[in-house]
Structure formats: structure tokens, C-alpha cells
Amino acid sequence: MRLLVVEDDKDLNRQIVTALENAGYAVDKAFDGEEGLYLGETEPYDAVILDLGLPKVDGVAVLQGWRRAGKTMPVLILTARDRWSDKVSGFDAGADDYVVKPFHIEELLARVRALLRRAAGHATSELICGPVRLDTRASRVVVDGNPVKLTSHEYRLLAYLMHHQGRVVSRTELVEHLYDQDFDRDSNTIEVFVGRLRKKLGVEVIETVRGLGYIAAAPAKV
Ligand code: CA
């Protein structure tokens, strides 16, 4: 899952980005409305955290710009405590959720998880695919009850496929959603990661669809 953080407060931006990265997401960052607007229009994010008080272009205008451009990713807005009217204009502009500053980072992480799973049509924070269970709260994976240790890239790959299970995901889509913009992206590495992930899981839940990509699906019962 790849996220965008638009926040002009440098310390807060860094704090949010670090927490999200530690939780296993690929994260891009912008420090003003203009940069945020551009990134949100041109890059495919799974969710965005957007401050409303931003230099150059304010947050509400940024959000309106994305929605006008047909961008439907979930957007969580950050608002100041006493500005209830900000929340209203944020929701009217197309926000999906909000967090009031100052906030606990754990609450922000929980709300991001909820937005991501709702966008993918899941009701709980645990994703299940046959014998594989992925706990998005703890970033943990269990196969037949046994914990499996994955690197952050392997986890991200599995989480993306499981959020979209039953649908074919192309290698290009994976590259776009697993790495941040500064990463040296190479779609050949995806194949390597899929190979390693399959070996670690030890069960057939990731199928290759020749020429199209990969699909996470529960193995057929014998
Ligand atoms: Ca601000």
C-alpha cells in the first residue's frame, strides 16, 4: 500500500511518515498544497493524509482538485481542534475521515487501516486467504496458525494482493503501489519477491496469471 502525506509542519510530516513506514507502507510526502495536488493527481495512492492549512494551495482546494480530476482514493484530513467548520468543508470537498490535531499517532494509523480496508471492501483488520491470515494491525502473517517472518517488502506485497484478493493485479500496479517515488523501481524485482514470498508461505495462495500478473486466492479444497 502506498500513501501520500501532505503536511507543511516538517516535524509532524516526518513523524507521520516514519510511523506509516514502520507500519509497512510505502510513503511519499509533500510540504505544500501545490506539490500535494500534483502528486495526488499523477501518482496512484491507496490513501492520502491531508492537512487543511497548507501554503500555496489550501487543503480543501487540493481535495476539490483531486476529486474534479476523478481521483477516488480515500482521503483523511487533519484539522485544528477548534475549527469544526473545517471538518464540514473537508467532508463536502470529498474527505473520507478526519483526525483533530493534536492526535495520537496510533489513532491515525487505525483510521488509515480502516480507510484502506473499506476501500478494498473488507470489514475487519484481519485478512484471510485460505490458510493465510494477515493481521493489518500488527503487520503479522500466520499460515495454518504458524507465524511467518516476512521482510517489509514481502509483507507489503502480500498485504496488497490480499486486500485485492480474487482480482488479477498486474506487475505495473504492484510496482506503483509498493514503492515510494524515491525508490529505484524495477518490475523484475516483483517476480523475485513473489518467489520468496511463496517459499516462505509454503502454501499456494499466489497464482501467476500469465501475461497479466498475480492473483491471491484460497487454494481449492481437495
Ligand atoms: Ca498546516
Automatic annotation (TrEMBL):
Any one GO molecular-function label of the UniProt entry: transcription cis-regulatory region binding
Pfam families registered for this protein in UniProt: Response_reg, Trans_reg_C
GO cellular component: cytosol; protein-DNA complex
Modified residues (4-aspartylphosphate): 51
Chain ranges of the Response regulatory domain: 2-116
DNA-binding region: 124-218
Assigned keywords, A-Z: DNA-binding, Phosphoprotein, Transcription, Transcription regulation, Two-component regulatory system
Any single biological process term in GO: regulation of DNA-templated transcription
Gene3D superfamilies associated with the record: 3.40.50.2300, 6.10.250.690, Winged helix-like DNA-binding domain superfamily/Winged helix DNA-binding domain
Domain OmpR/PhoB-type: start-end pairs: 124-218
SUPFAM superfamilies: C-terminal effector domain of the bipartite response regulators, CheY-like
PANTHER family hit by this protein: REGULATOR OF RPOS, RESPONSE REGULATOR PROTEIN CARR
Name of this protein: DNA-binding response regulator
Source organism of this protein record: Bosea caraganae
Source taxonomy: Bacteria, Pseudomonadati, Pseudomonadota, Alphaproteobacteria, Hyphomicrobiales
